[in-house]
Amino acid sequence: MIPLAHILEPLEDILRAVLDWLGPHGTIGLTWAWSIVALTAIVRLLMVPLAVKQIHSMQSMQAHMPEMKAIQQRYKNDKQKRNEELMKFYRDNNVNPAAPCLPLLFQLPVFFALFLVLRHPDDLLHTGDSVSWLGFVPDITEHANAHWSGYVLLVIYVASQLASTYFMSTTMDKTQRTLMMILPVAFVPVLVNFPVGLVIYWVTTNLWTVGQGVVTRTLVPRKPPPPAKRSSRTPPKGEAERDGAKADEETPPPQAAAPAPPKRVRRKKKKKARR
Description:
By secondary structure, this protein is mainly α. It has a domain at 4-61 and 99-219. Helices cover 61% and strands 0% of the residues. It contains twelve helices and no strands. The longest helix has 24 residues, at 196-219.
């Protein structure tokens, strides 16, 4: 079995080259901590097409949610039939339930490759380089449990992860959403042994996700109207439009009704005044 480090070695070399370009000895001249923040922004900019696809998929899932819940309720005692009907519903309505997971799948290799880069900081750092951040993180290459600032970053990580989950899990059911809320806390014992620079990367990407969620909710504040459900009897869109145009041509235009004759108004005769 090929080790993960060998699989991620090309990506590791790319990240090292980008950090070297952003770092104090490169073209941009940032500190190493801010280079990680800038690297995170570059990764998220590259993920914009996936993020747009994720947002559209979430909106589509939200629009079809009542129909999906009806299928789940109808076949709640038959798991196989329920899954078959849901897959058929996804196919008929062009819904991709895996689209919200694409950004996460894209970020995981970057996360592990950056971990490999920070595991050997001597390949980047020169003598006298500053590895502190914001005046309270003394060394971004040390583990998060080496200094109290690492625990502060872990608290910020949990809060930012919960906020990003809140914005990006609107189509999940209660069980899935609860699980996604528990995972950040459960992941802390693992993340505490990672370099602080990796925690900075994850906190930055969570804050980006929160900002993306706020912008999305501002631009699309209301739920989109549910589209017409397609079935095997529903003709394709182009064919339906041609049939409608053909029916309009065959149907004669309505004739204008003949104007009604003017009504005669009878005037009341004035009564003669009595003498």
